[in-house]
């Protein structure tokens, strides 16, 4: 039976934060995201990661998508992709040396060959990884190669399982060609997908489901329809990436991320109203959400 995610559970997952720590102590989140006409997605992910408690955040994105992040997230480090997949991979390798977690997908151009190359390289080489949005659609399209790489992470020393964060439509694309399970029962489908591909799977619905690689399922208990707006998932990706960067295990980062994201949405709804709240409001309520769960 699935377990409800409660404040008490999330409170027990809080990463340690020594008073004498510095920015290097709290890790670096590397966000691979963005495209010319979806630059806001990467900005929301970066904004959320910056508020997560991690020490530094770098966005690695196409050059023509960086202006939004440059203006709205002055604390972030900005780096542009190379002109080719090969040059982009070389740059990624340099940034990965200093990153403690990678988030990939928000606003990503699925048809850009650099996107596929970076996703494949991240699955193989990033010890802590969250995959969302455009990267999930690439994953579904290239499953004949990438699903096996996902599974292999579970046996690599020093690697955490990847965290996948699809909404229902993306999840159906991920499982649509697999005859081993269907989507009639979303909880069972989430569990079977996580088990088969050895990845922590987060299916975003009105009651978000998390399944770990051992078949344990959790159901989120907070959140409201004010979160049902484009960009909320990008905020969640940044938050989970930030938690991973601070050294949290993949399943714990996913559980804490969806709960604190949902609770922040509830707080925003109470203050602003669920009809008018927008995704960029959510990180502004992390302080209250963290305080309510004993993280501050």
Radius of gyration, whole Å: 17 Å
Shape label: globular
Q: Tell me the number of strands.
A: 10
User: Helical segment tally?
Assistant: 12
Order of helices and strands: EHEHEHEHEHEHHEHHEEEHHH
- CATH 4th-level superfamily: Ribokinase
Mean pLDDT: 93
The CATH topology = UDP-N-acetylmuramoyl-L-alanine:D-glutamate ligase
Strand order of the largest sheet: 1-10-9-8-7-6-5-2-3-4
- Strand count, sense and closure of the main sheet? 10 strands, mixed
Helix content: 40-55%
Strand residue content: 5-15%
CATH architecture assignment name = 3-Layer(aba) Sandwich
Plain-language structure description:
There is one protein chain. The protein is an alpha/beta fold. The chain has a single domain, classed as UDP-N-acetylmuramoyl-L-alanine:D-glutamate ligase. Helix content is 44%, strand content 12%. The protein is built from 12 helices and 10 strands. A 10-stranded mixed sheet has the order 1-10-9-8-7-6-5-2-3-4, sandwiched between helices. The two termini are 31 Å apart. The mean pLDDT is 93.
Task: List the keywords.
296 residues, alpha/beta, UDP-N-acetylmuramoyl-L-alanine:D-glutamate ligase, 12 helices
Question: What are the SSEs and their pairings?
Answer:
Elements: E1 3-4, H1 7-11, E2 28-32, H2 39-50, E3 56-61, H3 67-72, E4 77-80, H4 85-96, E5 101-104, H5 113-125, E6 129-131, H6 133-141, H7 143-152, E7 163-164, H8 168-175, H9 186-197, E8 200-203, E9 209-211, E10 217-219, H10 232-245, H11 250-271, H12 286-292
Parallel strand pairs: 1-10, 2-3, 2-5, 3-4, 5-6, 6-7, 7-8
Antiparallel strand pairs: 8-9, 9-10
Helix pairs in contact: 2-10, 4-5, 6-7, 6-8, 10-11, 11-12
